């Protein structure tokens, strides 16, 4: 839809802007700069963006039902209290794989945090990424493996469909699996979309209130909305080449916030000067409150 225009709301120059999550209680957007080691809290009302440097890569985050955040860091899962700045480390499921870090993640409708890992430097001959489920009681279990760059994790509004992708150029595939919210168990994956016919590779994913799946098309400068049966419903152009993830926010969840990948040499990459910025736009469809971690 060419008439939808994204607006730069924060010229952050993030290295790897990712994991936007809207907090309806505070009316703020949490997001991360993975390679910048930064956790961000953006307040659209004032334009203020508070930052915490956590000293390591921050792959993704989720809101906690009790307040604060759960993070998936380079060294594993941790709780973070933004009031005190306290980081309470929980478990590192890949302490024996130092070349990996956490990347994408999301919560299911019953408060379980799903997060996946990826190899930081693409020099291996085998995919080493895996997906873990952190339960509210603190139990952590590996659920899937064999990924190069796990991405796109999102749940349908009823919690019964689980979307995920691998954004590596050789794979660039989105899958979907039936999901049992009672047990937290996904069924066999099946193809949702092979994105090789699209301009962008599948990065972060989100699901709107109508049950449609949104893909951030990294390197393609676009957002793509799919119907639940995998058909392309609309394509929205972005002002930067490498959008990374969409979150729905605002009082009515009617504003889309999009993070992006930055570059110290944006001219050489052919990207815009605003690369690494945070953008907002009216997508003319509403989202839902983010699922919160139950622990």
TrEMBL record:
Q: Where is the SMP-30/Gluconolactonase/LRE-like region domain?
A: 16-261
What is its cofactor? Zn(2+)
Q: Which residues bind substrate?
A: 101, 103
Q: What Gene3D superfamilies is this protein classified in?
A: TolB, C-terminal domain
Q: Is Amino-acid biosynthesis among the key words of this record?
A: no
Q: Which GO terms describe its molecular function?
A: calcium ion binding; gluconolactonase activity
Catalytic residue list:
203 (proton donor/acceptor)
Matching Pfam families, A to Z? SGL
Q: Which residues bind a divalent metal cation?
A: 18, 151, 203
InterPro entries in the record: 6-blade_b-propeller_TolB-like (IPR011042), SGL (IPR013658), SMP-30 (IPR005511)
Q: Does the keyword Protein transport apply?
A: no
Recite the UniProt keywords alphabetically.
Answer: Metal-binding, Zinc
Top-rank taxon, per record? Bacteria
The entry's family comment says: Belongs to the SMP-30/CGR1 family.
UniProt-listed SUPFAM superfamilies: Calcium-dependent phosphotriesterase (SSF63829)
Offer one example of a GO biological process linked to this entry. L-ascorbic acid biosynthetic process
Could you give the cofactor binding note from the entry?
Binds 1 divalent metal cation per subunit.
Q: What is this protein called?
A: Gluconolactonase
